[in-house]
Amino acid sequence: MSNKPIVLLGGGGHASVLTDILRENKQKIASLISPICPNGAIFSDIKVFDNDDDLVLFSAEQFEVVVAIGPQLDDSKRINIIDMVVNKGYTFTNVLSPRAIISEYSSLGEGVQILPGAIINAGANIGEHVVINSRVVIEHDCIIGGFSHIAPGAVICGGANVAKHVFIGAGAVVLPGINIGSNSTIGANALVDKDIPKNTTLYGCRGNIK
Fold first, then answer.
1. Distance from C-alpha of 133 to C-alpha of 114, rounded to nearest angstrom
2. Which residues bind acetyl-CoA (predicted)?
């Protein structure tokens, strides 16, 4: 875990959760950058800037960045901000809740965010900028591709392979050994019991494929 002060990009609900985790981990938050004024007592003592260009006020050698914009089905805004941060030479802090269970035999890419109650078991490989939301279970030997989002309460069973840019909805269950192709969306509470091609949307419990 880095000791460098952190600049948060984003000031909504996801940012409040990440701020809470950073405080639990005793990590210093230097400032928050958000075009929308952040609400909530959790931000009350953090200096706020309102323009992404203000990031240049902080040295890339002395500060690290957390992209605190919550993932959406259309994640282009979040990805564009990540690209901007990379192009300016900054590195990303992983935000790992102390109330998550993360095996020392798992692998985490840069910019990973793991929220309270999540379980990451041995052999799991979590790609860059993946968000593992509250109470998610990633079982042994799973692969979660970069920029994917696993929503609250989802369960990815052993040996499943989730490609890049996949959104898995709240409460969904992916059975062992299943492969989910890139840019796919799995609906809330869906049961994924067969491989899913790339660019596919699966609705509901054993729902229709689009």
1. 6
2. 149
pLDDT at 205 over 70: no
- Residues 189 and 112 grouped into a single domain: yes
Question: What confidence tens digit (pLDDT) does each residue in 86-108 have?
Answer: 999 999 999 999 999 999 999 99
Domain that holds residue 76: 6-93
pLDDT exceeds cutoff 90 at 73: no
Q: Which of 40, 73, 93 is the last residue of a domain?
A: 93
Residue 206: which pLDDT band, with cuts at 50, 70 and 90?
low
CATH code of the domain covering residue 51: 3.40.50.20
140 noted as active-site residue: yes
Please enumerate, by residue number, every residue annotated as part of a binding site for substrate.
Answer: 70
Q: Which of 93, 110, 134 is the last residue of a domain?
A: 93
User: Pick the catalytic residue: 14, 129, 140, 165?
Assistant: 140
Task: Please name the residues in contact with 45: beta carbons below 8 A apart, sequence gap of 6 or more.
Answer: none
State pTM to two decimals.
Answer: 0.94
Radius of gyration of the CA atoms of the chain, in A: 17
User: What is the domain count for the chain?
Assistant: 2
Question: Nearest CA to 180 among 204, 155, 200?
Answer: 200
Would 207 be classed as within a structural domain? no
Partner residues linked to 137 by β-bridges: 119, 155
71-80, 120-129, 195-204: which is most confident? 120-129
